[in-house]
């Protein structure tokens, strides 16, 4: 891996990094040797995505294309990052910086279910430490560890933007909200049986409405165009 990073750093205009260890990359595996190519179907998807961007703004598709590559491969080997960068004519190093910045990207193989416990302040105040400890105990994993059967990876993240429904646990693309210890245990037991439980709040509420039920908009909203028919009726002639 370091070989590739070093290669990237030696591109024209780049200064060679003196202390490779600070990147904390796994240099014991030869992940950089893995070949990556979009499948025919994903290549079509990628081309379709690119039509959303102007000719000079193609680099704006970096995140969606990295995401597509990750969905195809399960994680993002550096060869996939380079393939996407080449496709968008983006500097390899810039693409690597983007991929390594966002927690949504996996820079090495991880478990089939990636559990991400939000530990930011609102979730912490609502018991995210209990959620995290429950995950650790039930799965016998520590933070940032992957189970030996590659089923689970446990991580912490900062804010899903669902603070009103704290505490929150993310599993791959879904988030589970209003968590309690029994709720977390139930979710984990479903996942252990390869069943994906319905995402969303576990307090019986809809989205982020008040737990005690709606306090405003107590009657059904009027449908679009309400009273418009009346206005459109021809006026009576006097
Ligand atoms: S702090 Fe957990 S979702 Fe915002």
UniProtKB/TrEMBL annotation:
* Recorded GO MF terms: 2 iron, 2 sulfur cluster binding; metal ion binding; NADH dehydrogenase (ubiquinone) activity; NADH dehydrogenase activity
> Its GO CC terms?
catalytic complex; membrane protein complex; mitochondrial inner membrane
What cofactors are annotated for this protein? [2Fe-2S] cluster
- GO BP, one example? mitochondrial electron transport, NADH to ubiquinone
User: What InterPro entries has UniProt attached to this entry?
Assistant: NuoE-like, NuoE_dom, NuoE_N, Thioredoxin-like_sf
**Annotated cofactor note:** Binds 1 [2Fe-2S] cluster.
* Keyword presence, Cytoplasm: no
- Any idea what this protein is called? NADH dehydrogenase [ubiquinone] flavoprotein 2, mitochondrial
**What highest taxon heads this organism's lineage?**
Eukaryota
Question: Where on this chain does [2Fe-2S] cluster bind?
Answer: 118, 123, 159, 163
Matches recorded under Gene3D superfamilies: Glutaredoxin, NADH-quinone oxidoreductase subunit E
Q: What is the lineage of its organism?
A: Eukaryota, Metazoa, Ecdysozoa, Arthropoda, Hexapoda
The reply on keyword Iron-sulfur is yes
Q: Which family does it belong to?
A: Belongs to the complex I 24 kDa subunit family.
């Amino acid at each position: 891996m370091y070989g590739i990073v070093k290669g990237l750093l030696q591109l024209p205009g780049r200064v060679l990094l003196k202390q490779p260890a600070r990147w904390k990359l796994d240099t014991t595996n030869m992940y950089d040797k893995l070949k990556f190519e979009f499948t025919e179907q994903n290549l079509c998807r990628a081309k379709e995505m690119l039509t959303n961007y102007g000719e000079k703004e193609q680099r704006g598709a970096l995140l969606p294309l990295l995401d597509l590559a990750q969905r195809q491969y399960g994680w993002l080997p550096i060869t996939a990052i380079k393939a996407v960068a080449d496709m968008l004519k983006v500097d390899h190093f810039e693409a690597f910086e983007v991929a390594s910045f966002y927690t949504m990207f996996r820079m090495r193989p991880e478990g089939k279910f990636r559990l991400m416990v939000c530990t930011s302040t609102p979730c912490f105040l609502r018991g995210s430490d209990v959620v995290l400890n429950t995950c650790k105990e039930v799965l016998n994993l520590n933070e940032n560890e992957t189970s030996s059967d590659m089923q689970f990876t446990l991580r912490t993240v900062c804010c899903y933007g669902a603070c009103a429904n704290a505490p929150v646990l993310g599993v791959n693309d879904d988030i589970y909200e209003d968590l309690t210890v029994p709720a977390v245990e139930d979710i984990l037991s479903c996942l252990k049986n390869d069943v994906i439980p319905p995402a969303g709040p576990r307090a019986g509420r809809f989205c982020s409405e008040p737990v005690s039920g709606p306090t405003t908009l107590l009657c059904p909203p009027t449908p679009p165009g309400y009273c418009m028919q009346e206005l459109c009726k021809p006026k009576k002639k006097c």
